[in-house]
Amino acid sequence: MREQSPRQQGPRPSRRHLLLGGAALAAGGLAAACTSNTEDGDSGGGNPQAGTLAGDNDKAGKQVTIGFSAPAADHGWIAAIAKNAEEQAKKYSDVTFKPVEPTNDINQQISAVESLIEAKVDVLVILPNDGEQLNQVGRKAMDAGVPVVNLDRVFPDHLSYRTWVGGDNYGMGVSAGHYIGKKLKDKGVADPVIVEIQGIATLPLTQDRSKGFADALKTYGFEVTAKQDAKFTVESGNQVASNLLQAHKKIDAIWNHDDDQGVGVLAAIKQSGRDEFFMVGGAGSANAMREIKAGGVLEATVTYSPTMASSAIKLARLIAQGKGMSDLVELQVPQSITLASETITKDNVDRYMPLGFES
């Protein structure tokens, strides 16, 4: 659930003013093999993030309708989720894609999902604003015989979903912690000032990221000096970074959980003129990759890929058609699939750049 930013004094920078488009993407997608069900084998669409198709599973089969619900695309990563889902569905001639109006209102999302259940869709793909608050409507769908592919923010009740697919939040923190810890250790920094800028502190995904970060830093004998949440927005990212820069006259490293709010973080850093530290981002947006390639305080970002939405559509289709994943021996789609978090640096950024998107 997107929370409102705290009241701030003075004008807050917009995306246009900050010049950088924000968002999050990463590498990776599901390794389930499939090929196009079109005659020429063309995967269709122009989105490089949408999964390629390979194997008999993607030959045209029973017609299925996939219902889709997600939060409003007021964040680059969420916008990419919706785009990936839609473009993946277009690849299949046997899929009817039925999205409902995206919303950040919990009750409206519940009502939208209920409308899909009443419409008797064959399968649902749901990225809930909040897994706990949407848990009961997921259970309602499952009880009605509509299998649910729970995307990203997990429902706490396993009876509320057939399959979960998402990123590795703990792994994001571990990847960021190892990059920062190793670099500081190699530089011989004994007591570093390490700052952490979270997303929404109350979300389990944020807590997992912070725990992974702390656990990885411990292996180097380091710990987080200060952390504050920036609510996944450019404006809050800018304000929080400004506050932290003022509070700490010397910083050795910053981990920012989210590249979209990182647009504001980077703007605050540039305005401050500070460059004594290095920074690691989170999720892998196109603008973050450009910053990494150009050189500067942002040296790396750890991935949390919106390609998971493409994978969710692929899995939903297989579940609705009673198929398993062609690369696995088992006859049914697994209950959970976690994508790896990779580290993008100047050394490998060109490999990841084609996966980037503009929010």
TrEMBL record:
Its main location: other. It is found in: Cell envelope. Residues 66-323 form the Periplasmic binding protein domain. Residues 36-58 are annotated as: Disordered. GO terms for cellular component: cell envelope. The keyword Signal applies. Keywords: Signal. Residues 1-32 form the signal peptide. GO terms for molecular function: carbohydrate binding. Coiled coil: none annotated. Belongs to the bacterial solute-binding protein 2 family. PANTHER family: D-ALLOSE-BINDING PERIPLASMIC PROTEIN-RELATED. This is Ribose transport system substrate-binding protein. It comes from Actinomadura hallensis.
